[in-house]
Amino acid sequence: MKRTVILFVNLILYIFLFGSGVQASSSYDKTGEMLDWKKVDKLFPKYSTFTVVDIETGKRFKVQRRAGSRHADVQPMTIKDTKIMKQIYGGKWSWRRRAIIVLGKNKKIAASMHGMPHGRGSLKNNFPGHFCIHFSGSKTHLTNNMDLSHKLMVLKAAGKLEQYLDKATPNDVIDAYIAGMKQQDPAIISRVSLQKMSWKPIFNKVENVNIRNMKLMSPEDQKNEINLKVPVEIEWYLKDSGRELFKGEIHLVRFTPLDSWKVDSQDFLKENTLLN
């Protein structure tokens, strides 16, 4: 009973702090259009150039599309562009996804990039390979699906992340929560967390995280519920202890059946020794 009261107090505080509408982000004030990949593919064919703007830092650099049929494989145009891109990633190449705006052909398009050189590169730019840019509806090379983290970053760049998360199913909320942890993105994970947390110290403990298994909750399981416990298997790679496997439940709550689901972060993070 005491635990339930605490959860509802946290939920009321969340609604008071963030409201029920779309939360504005202080990190950027411009968004891009969610243009489908099939249109982007024609708009920016092979060897076309465009500008990438990182929405968190505002830094921009130019790239050239070199390949890619399901998404854009691109390279920074010059040594200077490579330097700017590396600055965006804190001086270290990373697979982390970032929300970006693509500028070109009189368009401003919501997109997502990672920051890890791989494969082949052809330009004299000090960039050892190419990197990938995803748009709405684009897919990875090996699957017929859109990468979830890229999808969330595209939504973020389009200013539609909050709307998507506020209407998400319990399973989608958990997917987004773990993706936010994986990409170390406070905007994503905060929107689906019941409690307001200091995320940086938690992110600093995590190398990687993946959902290995999760029970699919049917509409009947959740229709009138305000508390759910979803069985999951989560694979962690922690900086201090290496690989760890969590088999347990993630607790979701909401104030009424019409409200959005939130993850009980304090309960989950304590169970996974990420919170003292």
Explain this structure.
This protein is α+β, with helices and mostly antiparallel strands. It folds into 2 domains: 2-22 and 159-271, Nuclear Transport Factor 2, Chain: A; 37-157. The chain has helices at residues 2-18, 37-43, 79-88, 148-157, 161-166, 170-182, 186-191, 199-203, 219-222, 265-271; strands at residues 49-54, 60-67, 72-76, 94-104, 107-115, 131-134, 206-214, 227-238, 242-253, 262-263. A 6-stranded antiparallel barrel has the order 1-2-3-6-5-4. The chain starts with a helix and ends in a 5-residue tail after the last helix.
Q: Got a strand count?
A: 10
Structural class: alpha+beta
Q: Estimate the helix proportion, in percent.
A: 25-40%
Indicate the mean pLDDT. 90
Largest sheet, described in full? 6 strands, antiparallel, barrel
CATH topology of the largest domain: the name is Nuclear Transport Factor 2, Chain: A
First and last CA, distance? 23 Å
Radius of gyration: 20 Å
Number of separate domains: 2
Strand and helix order? HHEEEHEEEHHHHHEHEEEH
CATH architecture of the largest domain: Roll
Cross-sheet strand order for the largest sheet? 1-2-3-6-5-4
Query: Under the CATH scheme, which class of the largest domain?
Result: Alpha Beta
Beta-strand content bin: 25-35%
Briefly characterize the structure:
The chain is an alpha+beta fold and 276 residues long.
